[in-house]
Amino acid sequence: MAGTIKIIRKKDPKKADPLARQKLIWTVGHTMTLVFGALFTLTYFFHVLLFFKYRSWKWLFLRVKKNYSIIKGTRWYHTILRWSPQLLYRLSLIGVFTSGSVTMFQNWNGLNPTWYDLLSSSNFQAMLMALLWFLGGGKSFYKLLPFMILSYMHLLDKDNEFNTESKKKEDQLTMANVHLLHLVSYSEIFIVIALVLDTLLMKNGSSGIMLVIYLGIYWLRLNFSPYAQITLLRILSKFDKKIPPKHKNNWDTIKRFIYAKMKAHERRLQEVGRTA
Q1: Is the pLDDT of residue 171 over 60?
Q2: Phi, psi (rounded to 5 degrees) for 56
Q3: Which residues contact 216 (CB under 8 A, 6 or more apart)?
Q4: pLDDT band at 226, cuts 50/70/90?
């Protein structure tokens, strides 16, 4: 009986695994968001602690001395130190774009998503927020906080992120970090309040524009994010007893609207589960 000949094909070492490369870029992006965001937070709070140096007490610390700089000097390293918070802030946002782009590629590769598909995606919404903060609106740690929390969660489960059969583990991770997800939602609401105050106090010329754009993005969150819906519903419920009776009906209408969005999201998930 003739023996069979086995042909062994050696893998080309020069041919890189595209999935491994994507995972590396994704990991680097989330690491940038978390590390540079944490470093920026340190500089931010250091700057806040020295508020009495760059704010005028004659104006109850509401007026900023525009020409004041904590780091003085004209040498090259003084310039780098002065620009380091801005650089750290933007590098953290670049990390959001990097990891988010890989996620979008993984989700929509070979497909033709509609605008509805994109706008309903939490990843796309996060990238819209990051783009907004990258282009303007001032730099604050609470604007980076939602991205940092999400990056932390993703890095905790990075071994299963690119595994298509790890849906159960993904759900378990989500339930284990449900408090962090609600913290993300609370921070998004805090950003709305901060932008409203910046607009009323006329902190800068772009505050009102940023508020309008951010409210548009947050409206998407309320329509498609269950955590944003639940968190806002919790906050509204705390004020139930303080609402005057004549406005009670309008107040309940707002709550019913959010609750209806939650139910609509659950129905969409059920439909996706049946067609999967």
Answers
A1: no
A2: -85, 125
A3: none
A4: confident
